[in-house]
């Protein structure tokens, strides 16, 4: 029996017709009915699984993205697309409020979204009110959203962060995040495994999140505070990786490192804020579970002590002073039999160091293991 209209055609016929349509006609085709829209999605869904909205995004690409919204798994939104500050602009949208409203509705239907990045890395002037909060409100019920990143150059409102409930990885790089908002977010997302906070994003009281982060394995942060503010972090029951960056007070990590040594579960440690004191190093080398270490030292004695970390596999070392650390590094190479990467990011070594290190490593080599050495100049 012949089809009485195009809507009655077999799906193979619809695909055949679709191939002969122009890009604009394909969009019109997709808007006829759900069946035609599904044809469009089947043809283009792979293209929009990972999508970025930025200042160069064209109108037709955004329309097609909206049509394929259920297939999107990873989305990056650069709010520069909605900027109205620049004269003679040749990018972005002409009607930011209307465009943002369409984006909002699209986000609510992105049931497959797993990863969301929202960023504002340049000065933003836009009629859109609280864009971060609006976006967070739109995605608050999406069941598959597990990873969220927020980058902002200026202060922004992220009060709606507390409405999300399924997050496992959170990265927030903004000038300031109120502690109560962070605490509520951690409380409503009990399965957080990774938390990355920019330097000074949280001023104090980071300890308040500890009772709500029972599954946290990775913590990256920066916060100039007293020793007592860092110490409670050792109570995180599943913490495996700890990274600190930014300014800190000398010796402020000694109590935290001492507490972490007792638990001996940390495998990755990075301290890029301030050089380790002798007292801090004494506590650090007690953490025998460490596999990866990145740190700054000011004394050769601190470097020599790192040889006690026999299970190290990767070491990235920087010196704050121009000291020759060649002899201090050799015990590390001799004792750390599983060392795979040794990087001297900042530090002086003599001309014979590399040859001596290779000879020493081969002498103690096990199971044909190899080590890569990098000495930055």
UniProtKB/TrEMBL annotation:
Signal peptide: none annotated. InterPro entries: F-box-like_dom_sf (IPR036047), F-box_dom (IPR001810), LRR_dom_sf (IPR032675). Residues 3-51 form the F-box domain. This is F-box domain-containing protein. The lineage of its organism: Eukaryota, Metazoa, Ecdysozoa, Arthropoda, Hexapoda.
């Amino acid at each position: 029996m012949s089809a009485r209209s195009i809507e009655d055609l077999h799906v193979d016929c619809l695909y055949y017709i679709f191939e002969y349509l122009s890009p604009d006609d394909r969009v019109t085709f997709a808007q006829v009915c759900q069946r035609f829209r599904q044809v469009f999605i089947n043809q283009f869904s792979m293209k929009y699984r990972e999508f970025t909205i930025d200042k160069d995004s064209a109108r037709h690409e955004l329309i097609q993205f909206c049509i394929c919204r259920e297939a999107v798994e990873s989305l990056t939104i650069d709010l520069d697309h909605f900027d109205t500050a620049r004269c003679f602009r040749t990018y972005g949208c002409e009607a930011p409020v209307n465009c943002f409203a369409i984006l909002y509705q699209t986000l609510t239907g992105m049931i497959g979204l797993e990863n969301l990045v929202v960023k504002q890395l340049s000065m933003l002037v836009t009629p859109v009110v609280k864009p971060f909060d609006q976006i967070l409100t739109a995605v608050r019920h999406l069941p598959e959203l597990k990873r969220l990143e927020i980058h902002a150059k200026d202060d922004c409102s992220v009060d709606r962060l507390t409405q999300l409930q399924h997050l496992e990885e959170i990265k927030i790089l903004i000038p300031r995040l109120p502690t109560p908002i962070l605490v509520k977010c951690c409380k409503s997302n009990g399965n957080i495994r990774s938390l990355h906070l920019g330097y000074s994003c949280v001023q104090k009281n980071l300890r308040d999140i500890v009772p709500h982060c029972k599954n946290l394995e990775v913590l990256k942060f920066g916060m100039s505070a007293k020793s007592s503010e860092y110490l409670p972090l050792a109570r995180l029951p599943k913490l495996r990786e700890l990274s600190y960056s930014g300014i800190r007070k000398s010796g402020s990590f000694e109590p935290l490192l001492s507490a972490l040594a007792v638990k001996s579960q940390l495998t990755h440690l990075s301290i890029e804020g301030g050089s380790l004191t002798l007292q801090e190093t004494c506590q650090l080398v007690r953490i025998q579970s460490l596999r990866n270490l990145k740190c700054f030292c000011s004394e050769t004695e601190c470097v020599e002590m790192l040889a006690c970390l026999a299970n190290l596999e990767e070491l990235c070392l920087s010196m704050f002073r121009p000291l020759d650390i060649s002899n201090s590094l050799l015990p590390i190479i001799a004792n750390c039999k599983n060392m795979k990467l040794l990087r001297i990011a900042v530090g002086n070594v003599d001309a014979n160091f590399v040859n001596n290190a290779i000879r020493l490593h081969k002498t103690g080599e096990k199971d044909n293991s190899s080590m890569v050495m990098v000495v930055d100049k």
